[in-house]
Amino acid sequence: MPDIPKSAKIGRNVVIEDHVKIGENVFIGHNTIILNGTEIGDDVVIGFNCVLGIQPIGNQRMRQISKNHNQLVLKNNTRIGNLVSIYSGTLVAENAFIGDHASIRENVIIEESTVIGRGAIVELNSKIGKKCTIQTLVYVTGDTIIEDNVFIGPCVSMSNDKYMGAQPYKLIGPHIKKDAKIGNNASLLPGITIGQKTIVGAGAVVTKNIEDGQIFAGVPAKDIKN
Amino acid sequence: MPDIPKSAKIGRNVVIEDHVKIGENVFIGHNTIILNGTEIGDDVVIGFNCVLGIQPIGNQRMRQISKNHNQLVLKNNTRIGNLVSIYSGTLVAENAFIGDHASIRENVIIEESTVIGRGAIVELNSKIGKKCTIQTLVYVTGDTIIEDNVFIGPCVSMSNDKYMGAQPYKLIGPHIKKDAKIGNNASLLPGITIGQKTIVGAGAVVTKNIEDGQIFAGVPAKDIKN
Amino acid sequence: MPDIPKSAKIGRNVVIEDHVKIGENVFIGHNTIILNGTEIGDDVVIGFNCVLGIQPIGNQRMRQISKNHNQLVLKNNTRIGNLVSIYSGTLVAENAFIGDHASIRENVIIEESTVIGRGAIVELNSKIGKKCTIQTLVYVTGDTIIEDNVFIGPCVSMSNDKYMGAQPYKLIGPHIKKDAKIGNNASLLPGITIGQKTIVGAGAVVTKNIEDGQIFAGVPAKDIKN
Predict the structure, then answer these.
(1) Is the pLDDT of residue A1 over 90?
(2) What is the DSSP string of A64-107?
(3) Rounded Cα distance, C199 and B15, in Å
(4) Which of A217, B89, B109, C38 has its CA 20 to 30 Å from the CA of residue B143?
(5) DSSP letter (8 states) at residue C12
(6) Predicted confidence (pLDDT) per residue in C79-136, tens digit
(7) What pLDDT score was predicted for residue B161?
């Protein structure tokens, strides 16, 4: 058991493994598990029944997992919901919020003041910028880049495997540029780029790159502005 | 620790905070957490690893949360699955069923005999009528009204923010009238009304109001009956 | 408490009920619950905060649940993630992987080396073949058959109730034949068959049977190969 500051409020049945660092005024809810090496800043609130700092495992059919998994870092004033899982090697920056039932893989960066919705899942090696809103049940695939101030509506789906497991292929997720907005339940295909301030309609299927400042909707998504 | 009737069956590592009321013949599974002020009726079954009675938190970029959060009330004979989260200020009426991994926010009303599917998420201030079926992984956005006897298929997505975070706007979810049926993975836009006994096809994107007794499908959804 | 081999590594606050069998070199993470009658093979890894071996419950509006629920069986070398729920009467075969937050119902068979993604939900009476990849947040409805080596992209939705609760009807899920590939966020309707090596595009809505070796996309899905 590591040193826990007197200012911390720790619930019942909480498990805190070795080599965990805990800042001042931290709240950890009942039954939450903080695994080896996790680093928690000041004024962090962590809900109930969470698992934080997971080391990746896999099976022989899943792709190679980074051997270099450092610790999970939760910066000052982050808020973590309930029943959340977050892997090691991930950074959650100041004032970010992770909703209930969300799951964040290893080697992810979530920048300041971003909101990750309930039940959203962020896969490995993805980067999400500042002040983004990633709504409920969004699926952010691996190797995705989301720039600052992006809005992603509920249930948006992304993919990163052009050949759906059939061929050796460099996995590459979407690249969503700053100030873009994606409507609910849209589908984004592997490797596409969505331009700055571009708007994608609800339920659209985006199959190719979209330039800055466009409005696209439909299946497949087409220009509805010009 | 509050008074617990002798008829209750309480699992191991269960946390029951102060000011919790528990009726007769209640089952609470191992590792479940019942937070301050929760009121549980008779013959209620609560699964394992749940968190019930959560007080809302947020960050400065999320919308104002009601200060008037009363307790969570689970009426007689409700059934709560496993790994479920439910907030305070919400009412789950008699004979309702909440599936595994579901999450229900504050100030929600779920009326008698309604079923909420596995992994479904219901946001704040929504009302769901009697004998509804809200299937697996449905997303019910905030400020939604669902009348009695509505069927919502798996993975249906709703939104309540017409400007996707861009403008001050009164958030308003869909209004789904009684006996309507929504096919799986349909997308509903903010503030639309779906009429009584109307049927929406699987994968449809509903962008405007639909009158009673219609059949709509496609992207965007169009009348396929007349 | 059953006999636990000395080779097992059991976390803190773990609940292991009676009549559980545990093989050699098993890892069970903190706060996980193993319910009555579960059978765990050798070299199995189970994450944190899981609930395994759940007996089905329901309410009077849900369909009849099999009375003949045998135990949950996890075969040798299976890997179970974190915050996972699995019901009794289900078989997870050798080398299979079940991702974090996934939920698997009763009477399901998951064959060797198949991967079930994070947050995916598999309903009762379904069978998933060998070496399948069922990606993140996929919904496999009840009474579905998925043959060997199928790829199902993220957020794919299936349904099994043609009349959406309105009529007595034999529930029947999709039948997806071997080597088929389904793109992300596609919707599959009740009882359809998708042929061998057929490819379905992202966001497609499949409303009728598709023969072997086809490529279909759109809403409703149409032949885009010929």
Answers:
(1) no
(2) PPPS-----EE-TT-EE-SS-EEETT-EE-TT-EE-TT-EE-TT
(3) 49
(4) A217
(5) T
(6) 999 999 999 999 999 999 999 999 999 999 999 999 999 999 999 999 999 999 999 9
(7) 85
Residue B223 to residue B215: CA distance in whole angstroms:
6
Give per-residue pLDDT as tens, A158-172: 999 887 777 666 789
| pTM score of the predicted model | 0.96
Rounded CA gap, A85 and A54, in Å? 8
Q: Which of the residues in chain B have pLDDT under 70?
A: 1, 58-69, 168-169
Structure ipTM? 0.94
Q: What is the DSSP letter of C58?
A: -
Q: Which two tokens stand for residue C106?
A: 């009763």
- Looking at residue B30, what DSSP letter applies? T
Q: Which residue has the tokens 């890997």?
A: C79
Report yes or no: C173 at the A interface, CB cutoff 8 Å.
no
Query: What's the pLDDT score for residue B68?
Result: 53
CB within 8 Å: B48 and C58:
no
CB C32 within 8 A of CB C49: yes
Cβ(A151)–Cβ(A138) under 8 Å? no
Give residue A4's pLDDT band: very low, low, confident or very high (50, 70, 90). Answer: very high
Closest residue in C to B13 (Cα–Cα): C13
Condensed to tens digits (0 to 9), the pLDDT of residues B130-176 reads 999 999 999 999 999 999 999 999 999 999 988 777 776 678 999 99
Chain A CB within 8 Å of residue B92 CB: no
Distance in angstroms (rounded) separating the CA atoms of residues C134 and C158: 12
Q: Say which of C31, C119, C159 has its CB closest to residue B119.
A: C119
For B169-199, letters b (16+ CB in 10 Å) and e give: eebbbbbbbbbbbbbbbbbbbbbbbbbbebb
- Render pLDDT for C42-58 as a digit per residue (tens, 0 to 9): 999 999 999 999 999 76
Phi, psi for A73 (deg, rounded to 5): -120, 120
Q: How far apart are the first and last CA of chain A?
A: 62
Residue C68 has pLDDT above 70, yes or no: no
Residues 6+ apart with CB under 8 A from B80: B44, B45, B46, B47, B50, B52, B74, B86, B92, B98
Predicted pLDDT at B151? 97
Is the Cβ of C198 closer than 8 Å to some Cβ of chain A?
no
Q: Is the dihedral of CA C4, C8, C12, C14 positive or negative?
A: negative
Chain A CB within 8 Å of residue C85 CB = no
Give A149-217 as a 3 state SS string: CCEECCCCEECCCCCCCCCCCCCCCCEECCCCEECCCCEECCCCEECCCCEECCCCEECCCECCCCEEE
The residue type found at C207 is T
Give the Cα separation of C187 and B131 in Å (integer). 25
Cα-to-chain-centroid distance, residue C190: 17
**Contacts of A99 by beta carbon, 8 Å cutoff, 6+ apart:** A81, A84, A115, A116, A117, A118, A119, A120, A136
